[in-house]
Specification:
Blueprint: E1 2-8, H1 19-32, E2 39-44, H2 49-59, E3 63-67, E4 69-70, E5 76-79, E6 85-88, H3 90-98, E7 106-110, H4 115-121, E8 127-131, H5 137-152, H6 157-170, E9 179-183, H7 228-236, E10 242-246, H8 253-266, E11 270-275, H9 287-301, H10 308-311, H11 318-334, E12 338-343, H12 346-349, H13 352-368, H14 373-376, E13 378-384, E14 403-406, H15 412-421, H16 428-438, H17 442-453, H18 459-465, H19 474-485, H20 488-499, H21 508-517, E15 520-523, E16 526-529, H22 532-541
Parallel strand pairs: 1-2, 1-3, 3-7, 7-8, 10-13, 10-14, 11-12, 12-13
Antiparallel strand pairs: 4-5, 5-6, 8-9, 15-16
Helix pairs in contact: 1-5, 3-4, 5-6, 7-8, 9-11, 15-16, 20-21, 20-22
């Protein structure tokens, strides 16, 4: 009988994973298999480093399955004595598993960025599976189910790997290339322990990118915030889909929208991104002119002839004309789903005269998609930074339907991954120092790593000058300061927050406005500064002691 040891860890300081569902699916699959008598399943939860070692000694397993978080070069995330994250290094794991090389046949590391550990462990274990990037919960579960279903049918580990990848594909999850197999029975897909890689096959160092604007689709510096990407990829393929992405500026909203549209295009959809900041002021004061601009922009993105003159006639109102333009021209002309990416719709919030009508129109189209075939082909991705303060009828608002996505800050593992991508060999304490300074704000983190990786400064130097005009954040900080000076009540709220050494209640409106700007984060109904950078800068600007 082969023993399968499943060890899982989901520290309280990391994103919650569906580990119980993964284990349950594996158990059910093996129980229904024809070879169920050949396997014994052993599960260990909330595993600490000592727990892992003892479980290996106690059970002497043939197959080891790890479920949890991975930190790339930093190791795998286990738990400490109080349930928080404790990273176990790649070298430590390889050394531990080496002691069991005569018994362990296969190790599956079902964790993000675990290919690093898989490669190291493969020096001692004949078959190891890791993940070459972040993997979403659904993909991780489907891979595990496919893998163990195959083992339960007496297939080889190499076949089981292929069945796992196929299981991801069959669910139309775009992550089947994430699992990586290292097997001595499959040399084409593995690097042998005694092999060296020829110079002409070595991957070149990643070129650094100036962290401005959206992150390009082929960038090595885009970090997935699982399961957000996978959820969006699944949603955009649903008839009449509506996805609304909200986050403060420079948090990665447009980068995510671009990837969702790209995923749609790979499934044969036509896509049309529209940035509302590109609308001339003359179009934003009149609903009729605004809707004509909107229709013309979509038509241009779809590479279709402009037929506004033909459809913008008669006594019908502007919203009816716009609806007819889509229903009778754009949607039939494409005859495939169309995914619209509506970026920076905050610009429309500034014009209440058109906002209520325009957003009510989007909601009406979404409702029609539930029953009318032609409207099922319209998919919407709405991107905004601010809370929706304009008065919208609850039944006429697109902001309370569809898939809501609020982009979070990067967590420690994701920041570690960015550090590695910048080819920086940092300790955990250095990463913690950076996150104390700038939090998990993607733009602030990337600016820091970019300047340090280029040799322009050290982390110590950055800590000294970050909140000054000499530092790399001067433009970013100055923009926030100028915006705050236009709102006296908001300035008072910022002063309260930055001076306090505990969470502060500044009122609902001010709290949400400050969060929309990205300056604070919530703790219950109260707020604290997002990071030490903002505290230092605003205390200095306000003439207060830090």
């Amino acid at each position: 009988m082969k023993k399968i040891l499943i060890v899982s860890a989901n520290p309280t300081t990391t994103d919650k994973l569906r580990l119980d569902e993964e284990v349950r699916e594996i158990q059910e699959g093996l129980q229904r298999s024809r070879s169920r008598e050949k396997f014994e399943l052993i599960t260990k939860w909330a595993v600490r480093a000592d727990d892992l070692r003892r479980a290996l000694l106690d059970h002497d397993p043939h197959i080891i399955h790890f479920s949890g978080h991975g930190g790339g070069n930093q190791g795998l995330a286990l738990e400490n004595n109080i349930g928080e994250m404790q990273l176990v290094s790649t070298e430590s794991l390889a050394r531990l598993f080496k002691l069991f090389k005569d018994k362990v046949e296969c190790i599956l590391l079902n964790a993000c960025y675990s290919e690093v550990q898989a490669e190291a462990i493969y020096q001692h274990i004949n078959c190891v599976v890791g993940m070459n990037r972040a993997i979403g919960d659904r993909a991780a579960i489907k891979f595990a189910v496919g893998f163990y279903d195959a083992l339960g049918a007496d297939r080889s580990y190499e076949d089981a790997y292929e069945f796992g990848c196929s299981a991801i594909d069959l669910e139309s999850i775009p992550e089947s290339s994430t699992p990586v197999l290292k097997s001595r029975n499959n040399p084409q897909g593995a690097i042998f322990a005694n092999e060296t890689i020829p110079d002409n096959q070595r991957k070149p160092a990643v070129s650094l990118e100036n962290p401005e604007g959206q992150v390009s689709l082929n960038s090595a510096f885009y970090v997935e915030r699982s399961p957000i990407e996978v959820d969006c990829y699944e949603a955009i393929l649903q008839p009449g889909a509506l996805i609304r992405i909200k986050a403060p500026r420079q948090m990665g909203k447009t980068s995510l929208m671009s990837r969702v549209l790209h995923h749609a295009s790979q499934h044969g959809y036509q896509t049309a991104p529209v940035n509302f900041q590109s609308a001339d002021a003359e179009f934003l004061g009149n609903l009729d002119q605004f809707l004509q601009w909107f229709c013309a922009s979509i038509t241009n993105e779809l590479n279709l002839p402009d037929k506004l003159d033909e459809y913008w006639k008669g006594v019908l109102g502007s919203k009816n004309k716009c609806t007819n333009y889509f229903q009778r021209y754009l949607l039939p002309a494409i005859n495939n789903p169309i995914a619209l990416g509506l970026d920076e719709v905050d610009e429309v919030f500034k014009h209440p005269k058109i906002a209520a009508d325009f957003f009510g129109l989007l909601r009406a189209w979404h409702e029609r998609s539930k029953n009318e075939t032609i409207w099922k082909n319209l998919r919407l991705v709405i991107v905004h930074s601010k809370e929706v303060y304009i008065p919208l009828n609850i039944n006429q608002s697109p902001f309370n339907v569809g898939l809501p996505i609020e982009l979070p800050d990067l967590n420690q593992i994701q920041v570690q991954n960015l550090v590695q991508r910048h080819r920086l060999n940092w300790s955990n304490s250095q990463i913690e120092e950076l996150m104390t300074l700038v939090g998990g704000h993607p733009y602030l983190v990337r600016v820091a790593l970019y300047e340090i990786a280029r040799g322009r400064m050290t982390l110590e130097n950055l800590q000294k000058i970050a909140a000054t005009e000499e530092g790399p954040y001067s433009d970013h900080l100055r923009r926030h300061w100028l915006n705050l000076q236009e709102d006296t009540e908001l300035l008072v709220a910022v002063k309260q927050v930055m001076m306090a050494n505990r969470p502060v209640d500044v009122g609902t409106t001010e709290a949400f406005k400050l969060r929309s700007m990205g300056l604070v984060k919530f703790q219950g109904n109260e707020v604290i500064p997002l990071c030490e950078l903002y505290r230092q800068y605003f205390l200095n600007r306000l003439g207060l002691k830090n």
